Structure formats: C-alpha cells, structure tokens
Amino acid sequence: MTRSSWLVVGVSLLCAAGLAAAAEVSEAPPPRDRVDDMMGRYNLQPAFDKGGRGLSNVLFGWLEIPLGIQARYTESNTVGSFIAGTGVGVVKGVVRTIVGAYETVTFFLPYPEDFRPILPTLEYFRKTPGRRRLPLE
Q: Do 95 and 65 form a contact (C-beta atoms < 8 A)?
C-alpha cells in the first residue's frame, strides 16, 4: 500500500470514531440541575434558612434598640421610658446578635426533626397586614 492509501484509511478511521462519539453524546439524557438535586437529596433548605436567619440576626440585631424604645415609650414619663427601652433594647440586641452568630456558624450541622428557630423574627421584618410594605418588597 502506498502512503496516500494509508492516509485515507487513517482519516476514515478518525471520522468513524468521531461519528461514534457524537452518537454516544446525543444518546445521553439531558443534564439535571445539580443544585436542585442536592437540595432535594439532602434537604438543605432548612439549613440555608437557618444560615440566612443567623446572618440577618447578626447584621440587624441592633434594631432591637429602637423597637425596645418604641415598645416602652409613654407620654407621661418620656425620659424614664426612653432609658428603660434603651436598656431592654440593648440587652435584646446583644442576645439576638449572639444567637445569630451561633446560627450562622452552625447552620451546616445536622438538626433534629422538630427544629424551630431559637428567636422569633424581628418585628420589623414580620409580614403583617397592618404594616406598610418596604420599597423593595
């Protein structure tokens, strides 16, 4: 055989291998969304909820101070109610920030079936019919 015939045989073998590989690729099932697969398999949504709630508590725990002042404010004793509200708000804010740091650090750990949040949602973020919607909601 001559050199040109060997070249024709080699090119035809490469083309046949390429067509076989293309046939295998086209027969493969469509790719699945790996994120949804992992979320469903390992039930990660509660863990991400816990992590988000913890991060929110760390960043917005200071909102307990104005909420504490508002809850304790009276017209008859403004200075006393302001001081009491500030004190209660600072204590609640520190507790909320510490609990948020704990939830942020431990969000990936396994949790029991009856797991519930340690603290309720901040009043500012609750969706109640009496509250006006925030601009970006």
A: no
Mapped onto helix, strand or coil, the DSSP state of residue 128 is coil
Predicted confidence (pLDDT) per residue in 31-53, tens digit: 667 766 766 666 677 788 888 88
Going 54 to 60 to 61 to 64, the CA torsion angle's sign is: negative
Tokens of 33: 């969304």
**φ and ψ of 96, to 5 deg:** -65, -40
Query: Is the pTM for the entire model greater than 0.85?
Result: no
Q: Which of 67, 65, 55 is nearest to 97 (CA)?
A: 55
Residues found in the chain: 137
Listed by start position, the domains of the chain span: 1-30, 34-125
Question: Could you tell me the CA-to-CA distances from 60 to 12, 25, 52, 78, 113 in Å, in that order?
Answer: 68, 51, 12, 26, 28
